[in-house]
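I have been asked to look over a protein record a colleague put together. The record follows directly below this note.
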Amino acid sequence: MGMSEEPKKKMEESEMTPSDVKQVDESTLGITWPDGHESVYPVKLLREKCPCAHCIDEWTGEKKIKPGMIPDTIRPLKIKAVGLYALQFDWNDGHSTGLYPYELLRRLCQCGECKTQNAA
């Protein structure tokens, strides 16, 4: 096996830890990743994709948030890093139990490049 044939390794936690998290505008969040990728997210989408047990049934995996349940006025009041693996949002609807692993956030990226890849 030559030097260029290294097996693809899983990203290390430090490679997944955002280098920057910023509010682009009142309804959009931006995350810059260590590989330079700039992700964008409508905050309403993030709230709808909350992975906590209040929002997703632990046993069936069924989403408890139905279309239209989250208002367009949803905003994160506070965003905090949890260890080296997730972000936690305090939302203006009082919800704050969801931990968003960086891997999930990267998959949810709504930039043009990622949306094209995810549609393929």
Q: What stands out?
A: Confidence is low (pLDDT under 50) at residues 1-9.
